[in-house]
Each structure stands twice: as structure tokens, then as C-alpha cells.
């Protein structure tokens, strides 16, 4: 019973971490879009990363 | 992000490793694609001149002639005689053209690129297979493990950025079929596993997690449902083991099955979007198959993960409310609370991108940057994480009757959905 309770808590914690993860994901995507719209990232940026 | 013990620093080594692997794989991908284009151009040149015994043009004449042809096609497009804007021709470099003209043989490097693309050994395959081999042979040192786990969700910003490729009309056109597939196959599998589990007298905790996991969205749904159905740790790992095992088998076999069945890219996208249980794995399989496949699979996936709260509500009803009612007790579902808690937030970013594209914020350059180039960067880091986390020891945790039920249900869904998407056809699933 204690084990189940502990696990229940843990899975709730994991889900709230997934929620936090989603917020970070949104921030990362937003930064990329802003940089793209501002012209900091251009279509030449990506090919320039490779030989 | 899942654990604060040891601070953020513990994620750094694994993340750096995934970034390095991602870069190496993208470098490989860029090279083989360039070599493939060089191969096709070399073949074209040989066909045009070699068999007729004509002399080859000089390099300057070759580039001038190609440029002239391109300008003619462009003028025809401007006059409205052709619908599609011609692409700039891919020309051989002088150092490659001269040996071709002299020896009349295609460089082995170019043939190698062509072969690699034929075998679909793009960055996706390299990262998934390479990561899996590293993990299960030399092993992944503990130092890198937290960061490698954290790298997997980096696929999600790529999914959001891909939103810039769609218009609402595309989304609604494919979305109708996506909704249909989700309702029939995904919710159908959830119900089937739950009912079969009861019939075969399996524990509710285990079958609840398995029903959610095999039905809708792999591990995320299993995590969301676990507390609702009072799953034990053992149940959870059995279910996750089954989901991961099926996903891994599907990921490495579906692209080849798709090719063998002659599936078009949109049809394959619809199939993997329905049949593969985990977002990272389905995105990987669809990307592996082609960009159009990814565009379709992404819509199905968005609709599917949006249904996580529905699955949680079903599980509460099936395992808690129904049981309580049978025992004469009265229990209620707080639907709004469930939706608020379980709805995957990143979908909002995807819809925001679609809207920005619809109102004309993005140019063609932006769409290339977000939906093709930076998407690959995010995917490459994420796929490195996925590959490095395929541990055979975790897959062995799947077992017992529950595994049989979960695996049969997932396989049945894969077979039936393949038939249905093939029958529905390419045009229904084509985004553009």
C-alpha cells in the first residue's frame, strides 16, 4: 500500500515535470521563431553549420 | 527537468553528447543528399552525351546551358504556362565535372550517396540505430544518462515549428480523417484492452495503464493514467516495457513495410500516426520516410495527444466510477479538472504557428528555416536521445498475459489501420 502511494506521488511528480517540459519546449520554439522573424537566423544559417 | 537532485549540471554532459551525435548525423545526411544529387546530375549528363558518342561540353558551356534552360523555365512560369515554380538546377562542381567528362564514369562517392538514400540510411536511421547500438554494446555511462533522457522532448519544438508549414484548411482537411482514425483505432484499442483485461481477469492497475498506453500516446498516457487506476510500479514498468518494445519494433520495420506495400508518403504518415504508440518514435518513423509523411503524421499525432484527457476520463469511468456504482457508491468525474491537468500544452504552440502562417506572417524563407532546417536540428538532438534510451533491459520488462494482450491489440491496430489508410488513399491525407 505504501509502495503504491509512493508510486502515485512519483507519477504525479513526473506528470507535473512533463508540464514544465512543455513550457520549456514552447519557450525554445518561440525563441527560434523570434530569431527567424528578426532575420538573425536566415536560410543560409543551417547550411553554414556543415562542411 | 524531471529531477532537481544534482541540479541542472547533471543534464549537461548527456545533452552535449546528443548535440554532438545530432550534428555528426546531420553532417552525414547533408553529405549523402549532396552526393545523391550529384549522382542524379552525373547520370543525366551521361545519358545526354555519352551513348550518342557526342563530345562533352566544356565546364563553362555546361553551366551556361543549364542556366539558360533554367531561365527559360522561369519565364514560362512567369507567363503562367507552368504551374510549379522551377527549382534552381543542381550543377556539378568543376572538380567533379571534369573527371566525369574524361572517364565517363560516375564517382564512387556519388554512387555511395545514392545507395545510402535508397536504403533510407538518413540521419534518422543513423541516430536511432547508432544510439541503440551504443547503449546496448559499450553502454551509456551514468554521467550521460540524465541528459540523454532530457534530450528526447527536444523533438517537440520541432513539432511546433512544423506548424508554420500548414494552413488551417490543410489541417481541417486531413484533421477530419485524423479524427476518424483516432476515434476508431485509438479509442477503440483503449476500450478493447480494458475489456479484454477484465475478461482475462487481469489486474485493473496493470490493464488501465496498458489500455491508455497502447491506445493513445505511449508513455505519456500511461503516466497520466497510472494514479487514476492505482497502478503498482510493477504494472507501470510492464506496460511501459510493452509499449516501448512494440514502438521499437515498429520504428525499425514500418518504413520498410511501407515501402514494400508501396505506400505513398501521406498514406504512410497516416499509418504511423495511428499505429505507433509513442510521439518520438512515430515522428522518427515518419521523418525517416519523407517530409510529406511527417506533415501528415504530425496532424494525426496532434489530434491523438489532444485526446489524452479523453482517455483519462474513460479510465476513471471504467475503473473507478463504474466499479463504485456497482458497489452502490456514488463517484463523480471533474471533467474540466482532468482536461486542465492532462492537456498537453505544447499543442498550443503548434496551433499558434498554423495561425501565424495563415495570416501571412511567414515567408517562404521562414517556412524553410522553421519547417525544414531548424526542425532537423531539434529532431536530430531528440532522436539521439531516443536511440540512446533504447535499452534491451527495459524492453525485457514486458511480460505475462498483459504483454500478450497489449501486443496483440497494438498489432491488430497496426494491421487494420494499414488497410484502412490504404483504402482511403493518398489524396485524403495529402497536406499540400
Helix and strand arrangement:
The complex is a heterodimer of chains A (about 50) and B (about 425).
Chain A: H1 2-38, H2 45-48
Chain B: H1 12-50, H2 59-78, H3 94-103, H4 108-118, H5 123-136, H6 145-151, H7 155-162, H8 168-199, H9 204-225, H10 233-260, H11 265-275, H12 279-289, H13 291-305, H14 308-326, H15 335-342, H16 346-358, H17 364-388, H18 392-395, H19 400-424, H20 426-429
Helix pairs in contact in B: 1-4, 1-5, 1-6, 1-17, 5-12, 5-17, 6-17, 7-16, 7-17, 8-9, 8-13, 8-19, 9-10, 9-14, 9-19, 10-12, 10-19, 11-12, 11-13, 11-19, 12-13, 14-15
Task: Describe the model.
The complex is a heterodimer of chains A (51) and B (432). With 51 residues, chain A is an all-alpha fold. In chain A, 80% of the residues lie in helices and 0% in strands. Chain A contains two helices and no strands. The longest helix of chain A has 37 residues, at 2-38. Chain B is built from 20 helices and no strands. Chain B has 432 residues and is mainly α.
Keywords:
heterodimer, A: 51 residues, 2 helices, B: 432 residues, mainly alpha, 0% strand
In short:
The complex is a heterodimer of chains A (51) and B (432). Chain A is an all-alpha fold.
Uncertain runs of chain A: none
**Major sheet attributes of chain B:** none
The averaged pLDDT of chain A comes out at 79
Beta percentage of chain B is under 5%
Largest sheet of chain A: none
As a whole number of angstroms, the C-alpha radius of gyration of chain B is 25 Å
Largest interface: A-B, 35 and 45 residues
**Share of helical residues of chain B:** over 70%
Helical proportion of chain A, percent range: over 70%
Please give the alpha-carbon distance between the first and last residues of chain B: 37 Å
Number of helices of chain B: 20
Find the structural class of chain A using helix and strand composition: mainly alpha
Amino acid at each position: 500500500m505504501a509502495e503504491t502511494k509512493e508510486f502515485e506521488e512519483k507519477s504525479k511528480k513526473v506528470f507535473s515535470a512533463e508540464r514544465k517540459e512543455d513550457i520549456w519546449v514552447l519557450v525554445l520554439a518561440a525563441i527560434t521563431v523570434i530569431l527567424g522573424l528578426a532575420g538573425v537566423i536566415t536560410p543560409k544559417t543551417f547550411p553554414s553549420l556543415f562542411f | 527537468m524531471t529531477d532537481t537532485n544534482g541540479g541542472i549540471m547533471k543534464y549537461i554532459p548527456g545533452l552535449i553528447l546528443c548535440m554532438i551525435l545530432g550534428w555528426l548525423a546531420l553532417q552525414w545526411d547533408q553529405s549523402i543528399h549532396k552526393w545523391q544529387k550529384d549522382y542524379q546530375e552525373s547520370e543525366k549528363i551521361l545519358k545526354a552525351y555519352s551513348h550518342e558518342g557526342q563530345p562533352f561540353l566544356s565546364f563553362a558551356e555546361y553551366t551556361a546551358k543549364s542556366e539558360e534552360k533554367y531561365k527559360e523555365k522561369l519565364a514560362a512560369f512567369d507567363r503562367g504556362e507552368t504551374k510549379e515554380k522551377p527549382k534552381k538546377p543542381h550543377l556539378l562542381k568543376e572538380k567533379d565535372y571534369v573527371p566525369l567528362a574524361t572517364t565517363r564514369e560516375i564517382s564512387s562517392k556519388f554512387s555511395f550517396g545514392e545507395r545510402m538514400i535508397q536504403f533510407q540510411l538518413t540521419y534518422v536511421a543513423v541516430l536511432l540505430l547508432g544510439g541503440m547500438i551504443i547503449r546496448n554494446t559499450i553502454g551509456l555511462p551514468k554521467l550521460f544518462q540524465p541528459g540523454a533522457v532530457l534530450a528526447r522532448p527536444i523533438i517537440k519544438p520541432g513539432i511546433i515549428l512544423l506548424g508554420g508549414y500548414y494552413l488551417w484548411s490543410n489541417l481541417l482537411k486531413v484533421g477530419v480523417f485524423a479524427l476518424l482514425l483516432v476515434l476508431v483505432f485509438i479509442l477503440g484499442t483503449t476500450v478493447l484492452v480494458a475489456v479484454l483485461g477484465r475478461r482475462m481477469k487481469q489486474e485493473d492497475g496493470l490493464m488501465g495503464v496498458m489500455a491508455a498506453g497502447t491506445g493513445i500516446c505511449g508513455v505519456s498516457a500511461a503516466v497520466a493514467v497510472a494514479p487514476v487506476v492505482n497502478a503498482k510500479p510493477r504494472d507501470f514498468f510492464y506496460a511501459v516495457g510493452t509499449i516501448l518494445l512494440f514502438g521499437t519494433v515498429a520504428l525499425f520495420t514500418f518504413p520498410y513495410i511501407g515501402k514494400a506495400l508501396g505506400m505513398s508518403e501521406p498514406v504512410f504518415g497516416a499509418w504511423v500516426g495511428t499505429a505507433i504508440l509513442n510521439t518520438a518514435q512515430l515522428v522518427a518513423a515518419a521523418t525517416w520516410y519523407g517530409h510529406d509523411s511527417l506533415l501528415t503524421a504530425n496532424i494525426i499525432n496532434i489530434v491523438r495527444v489532444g485526446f489524452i484527457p479523453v482517455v483519462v476520463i474513460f479510465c476513471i469511468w471504467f475503473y473507478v466510477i463504474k466499479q463504485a456504482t456497482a458497489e452502490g457508491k456514488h463517484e463523480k468525474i471533474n471533467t474540466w479538472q482532468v482536461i486542465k491537468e492532462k492537456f498537453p500544452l505544447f499543442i498550443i504552440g503548434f496551433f499558434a504557428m498554423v495561425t501565424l502562417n495563415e495570416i501571412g506572417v511567414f515567408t517562404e524563407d521562414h517556412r524553410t528555416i522553421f519547417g525544414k532546417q531548424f526542425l532537423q536540428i531539434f529532431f536530430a538532438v531528440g532522436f539521439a536521445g531516443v536511440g540512446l534510451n533504447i535499452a534491451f533491459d527495459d524492453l525485457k520488462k514486458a511480460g505475462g498475459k498483459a504483454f500478450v494482450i497489449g501486443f496483440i491489440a497494438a498489432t491488430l491496430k497496426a494491421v487494420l489501420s494499414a488497410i484502412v489508410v490504404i483504402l482511403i488513399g493518398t489524396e485524403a491525407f495529402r497536406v499540400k
